[in-house]
Amino acid sequence: MKTWQYALIVFLGGCSYGVLSTVVKLAYGAGFSVTEVIGGQYFFGVLLIWLIFLFTKKQKMKYKQLGKLLLSGLPFGLTGVFYYQALQSLNASLAIIFLFQFVWIGTFIDWALFKKKPDFNKIISIIILILGSVLAAGIVVEKGINVTWQGSVWGILSAITFTVSIFLSGSVEKQLPPVQRSTLIATGAFITASAIFPPVFLADIHVAMGVAPYGLFLGLFGVALPPLLFSIGMPHVGPSLGTILSASELPVAVTMASIILAEHVGLSQWFGVVLILGGIIFGNVQSSKPSANPLSINKLAK
């Protein structure tokens, strides 16, 4: 595959996360609790990815490799838990701004661990993305925003764990088939989420059948697809560009809320969506000066 195709795959991984908030709101509106929604998401998600795994190429592993991949699912599971905890004391627009800080945390990790100093375009791209996220989330037009230190801590933790998830997707046991890697990562995420939100709803057949349609959708786009798409694309794009590409999450979330939930999305929010998409594109454009960045637009075209 060409490098730009790997970048597109990561972009789509971010988009898949963007549909979750709309479906979660529909599930809440149908009367299901946080435990039932999250439990359904991870339970059905891990069933889907295992079903795919059964019909794909497999490679023998050592127990050490198995353990690494299961542990790599820990931050995937914790991201959802931390984000839902943040929503308990922060409004949705502010909570997503905290989560969105992964766009610069990923670049910082790339710089700190791999000595890949961000170029001018990448820094400008991050600034554009953060500004766009503030506008797209409706912070500018929203009044009476209440910020708590507890919610802020949970929000920042969700951003950190999401960044770590992206990093691990591109670095742990890269030699294994992507489906095999993502299946075990998703399994680790399921174990983590189940330890905090046990899927006790499975004991009630009526609740289980009722939450199943939401759980299947959330499981597909929140548990099965993201680890798979990131496992395919991240090893080729790296965590720095990967976090920028994953910023596609917020524009999709705003668009879905407008179309499906019929929520009012103001002009400033649409402008924020445009800024985010522009920031993603700008982050992939090669600067006029020579750069050591391995994912310049010239390489993406090869």
TrEMBL record:
<feature type="transmembrane region" description="Helical">
    <location>
        <begin position="241"/>
        <end position="261"/>
    </location>
</feature>
<feature type="domain" description="EamA">
    <location>
        <begin position="7"/>
        <end position="136"/>
    </location>
</feature>
<comment type="similarity">
    <text>Belongs to the EamA transporter family.</text>
</comment>
<dbReference type="InterPro" id="IPR000620">
    <property type="entry name" value="EamA_dom"/>
</dbReference>
<feature type="transmembrane region" description="Helical">
    <location>
        <begin position="69"/>
        <end position="86"/>
    </location>
</feature>
<keyword id="KW-1133">Transmembrane helix</keyword>
<feature type="transmembrane region" description="Helical">
    <location>
        <begin position="7"/>
        <end position="28"/>
    </location>
</feature>
<keyword id="KW-0472">Membrane</keyword>
<feature type="transmembrane region" description="Helical">
    <location>
        <begin position="123"/>
        <end position="141"/>
    </location>
</feature>
<feature type="domain" description="EamA">
    <location>
        <begin position="151"/>
        <end position="282"/>
    </location>
</feature>
<dbReference type="InterPro" id="IPR037185">
    <property type="entry name" value="EmrE-like"/>
</dbReference>
<feature type="transmembrane region" description="Helical">
    <location>
        <begin position="214"/>
        <end position="234"/>
    </location>
</feature>
<protein>
    <submittedName>
        <fullName>EamA family transporter</fullName>
    </submittedName>
</protein>
<feature type="transmembrane region" description="Helical">
    <location>
        <begin position="267"/>
        <end position="285"/>
    </location>
</feature>
<dbReference type="InterPro" id="IPR051258">
    <property type="entry name" value="Diverse_Substrate_Transporter"/>
</dbReference>
<dbReference type="Pfam" id="PF00892">
    <property type="entry name" value="EamA"/>
</dbReference>
<keyword id="KW-1003">Cell membrane</keyword>
<feature type="transmembrane region" description="Helical">
    <location>
        <begin position="153"/>
        <end position="172"/>
    </location>
</feature>
<keyword id="KW-0812">Transmembrane</keyword>
<dbReference type="GO" id="GO:0005886">
    <property type="term" value="C:plasma membrane"/>
</dbReference>
<feature type="transmembrane region" description="Helical">
    <location>
        <begin position="92"/>
        <end position="114"/>
    </location>
</feature>
<feature type="transmembrane region" description="Helical">
    <location>
        <begin position="40"/>
        <end position="57"/>
    </location>
</feature>
<feature type="transmembrane region" description="Helical">
    <location>
        <begin position="184"/>
        <end position="202"/>
    </location>
</feature>
